[in-house]
């Protein structure tokens, strides 16, 4: 039985994690819940799972939650950014699943490891921004980091029992997004609505845009670099539109292992929670005769510069990945607000990265400073 604190419980990963807890009550018990502002979802989940430790990030929503909880005895409510860290530190648990959009998950993730809990990572920012210090903290404290992202979960499965020296390269698969076939000169006309139509996964807005630009895959390359201790030069991306092969590992003997399954986030969450055990679930068998074809194609760096930018950021290291991530967040928000074109997303990130002097072996302070600098620098491009 794993006692799990779930940060970001109202989002799509959070809802999937609740589904897993519902289906495996003997293996997963939710003992803490945190949301940004969705108080009604939070209270409903708290009632269903009997959770007594809650956190709300947004100030006004936290006040609403406090009023609602006034009549409920025995429930602790933590508030704001500091509240997420307190929830993690002060709640007895085995694992913290961080599924918060943006940088707010970083401090609670470190707090989880420092307070002796394993970390299940769904928020890419944690390893992209602070991969070096997060992995070091986990090693120092003897805690595990379990990937929930489908690609990293796939690689994690392929690497079971493998020694580092046996691994030649990691191959991340990408669906290619809705503009896989769109000519370069037409990308400037892409609307918000078109960009939000993802062919295979149903996710939040930010990550859906990131899938369309391939920034999501760029973030995943950097995440994989830290999670599996493989340098950027040995991390490749291949477009695989069916999203059945979730990623692959090539070994030194050129043998390749792939992980295949239906696209359902409940599966990687379940695997992370029940690891090292595999348990039956509702996913259903793959019908290969019906799938008939699994196809692969090289990503086009001219139309999708995000991969090149990510490789550069990950190779430079230090604070550059945090800048890559932060500038992209601001650029995506601008696109969603209809104040910029689709190609301006990567054009902005490239400009901000070009102006950044990366700080090597950066501590958390330096990383957060670079993050703030990149946001301001990207906003000024307006
Ligand atoms: Mg992914």
N→C terminal distance: 50 Å
Residues in β-strands, percent: 15-25%
Largest sheet: 7 strands, parallel
Query: Which overall shape is indicated by the principal axes computed on the Cα atoms?
Result: globular
On the 0-100 scale, what is the average pLDDT?
95
Helix content: 40-55%
Instruction: Strand order, main sheet: write it out.
Output: 4-3-2-1-5-6-7
Helical stretch tally = 16
Summarize the model shown.
The chain is α/β, with parallel strands linked by helices and about 375 residues long.
Q: How is the secondary structure organized here?
A:
Elements lengths: L1 E6 L4 H12 L4 E8 L3 H11 L3 E4 L2 H11 L6 E4 H11 L4 E4 L7 H9 L3 E4 L3 H17 L3 E3 L2 H9 L8 E8 L17 H4 L9 H9 L1 H13 L7 E5 L5 E7 L4 E5 L5 H9 L13 H4 L14 H11 L3 H17 L6 H13 L8 H16 L3
Helix pairs in contact: 1-11, 4-5, 5-6, 6-10, 6-14, 10-13, 13-14, 14-15, 14-16
The structure holds magnesium ion.
Magnesium ion binds next to helix 7.
List its salient traits:
382 residues; 16 helices; globular; alpha/beta; Rna Polymerase Sigma Factor, Chain: A; Rossmann fold; binds magnesium ion
What does this protein structure show overall?
The structure is a single chain. The chain has 16 helices and eleven strands. With 382 residues, it is α/β, with parallel strands linked by helices. The protein folds into three domains: 2-147, NAD(P)-binding Rossmann-like Domain (Rossmann fold, 3-Layer(aba) Sandwich); 153-315, no CATH class; 317-382, RNA polymerase sigma factor, region 2, helix turn helix motif (Rna Polymerase Sigma Factor, Chain: A, Orthogonal Bundle). Strands 4-3-2-1-5-6-7 form a seven-stranded parallel sheet, sandwiched between helices. Strand 1, helix 1 (12-23) and strand 2 form a beta-alpha-beta unit. Helix 1 (12-23) packs across helix 11 (266-274), helix 5 packs parallel to helix 6 (125-141) and helix 14 (320-336) runs parallel beside helix 16. The mean pLDDT is 95. The structure holds magnesium ion. Magnesium ion binds at residues 149-151, 220.
């Amino acid at each position: 039985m794993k006692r799990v604190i779930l940060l970001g419980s109202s989002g799509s990963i959070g809802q999937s994690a609740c589904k897993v807890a519902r289906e495996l009550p003997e293996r997963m018990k939710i003992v803490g819940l945190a949301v940004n502002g969705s108080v009604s979802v939070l209270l409903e989940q708290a009632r269903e799972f009997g959770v007594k430790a809650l956190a709300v990030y947004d100030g006004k929503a936290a006040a609403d939650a406090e009023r609602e909880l006034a009549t409920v005895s025995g429930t602790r409510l933590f508030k704001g950014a500091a509240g997420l860290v307190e929830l993690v530190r002060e709640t007895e648990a085995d694992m913290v699943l961080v599924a918060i959009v943006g940088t707010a998950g970083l401090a609670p993730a470190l707090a989880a490891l420092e307070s002796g809990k394993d970390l299940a990572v769904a928020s890419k920012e944690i390893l992209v921004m602070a991969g070096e210090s997060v992995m070091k903290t986990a090693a120092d404290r003897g805690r595990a980091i379990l990937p929930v992202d489908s690609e990293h979960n796939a690689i994690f499965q392929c690497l079971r029992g493998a020694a580092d020296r046996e691994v030649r390269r990691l191959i991340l698969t990408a669906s290619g997004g809705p503009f896989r076939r769109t000519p370069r000169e037409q990308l400037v006309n892409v609307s918000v609505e078109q960009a939000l139509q993802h062919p295979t996964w149903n996710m939040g807005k930010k990550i859906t845009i990131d899938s369309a630009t391939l920034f999501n895959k760029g973030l995943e390359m950097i995440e994989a670099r830290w999670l599996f201790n493989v340098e950027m030069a040995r991390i490749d991306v291949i477009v695989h539109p069916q999203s059945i092969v979730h990623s692959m590992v090539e070994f030194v003997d050129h043998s390749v292992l792939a992980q295949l399954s239906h696209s359902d986030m409940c599966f990687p969450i379940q695997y992370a929670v029940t690891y090292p055990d595999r348990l039956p679930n509702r996913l259903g068998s793959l019908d290969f005769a019906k799938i008939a074809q699994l196809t692969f194609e090289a990503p086009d760096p001219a139309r999708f510069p995000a991969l090149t930018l990510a490789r550069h950021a990950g190779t430079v290291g230090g604070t550059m990945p945090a800048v890559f991530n932060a500038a992209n967040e601001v650029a995506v928000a601008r696109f969603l607000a209809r104040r910029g074109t689709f190609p301006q997303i990567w054009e902005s990130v490239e400009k901000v990265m070009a102006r950044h002097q990366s700080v090597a072996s950066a501590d958390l302070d330096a990383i957060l400073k670079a993050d703030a600098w990149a946001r301001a620098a990207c906003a000024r491009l307006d």
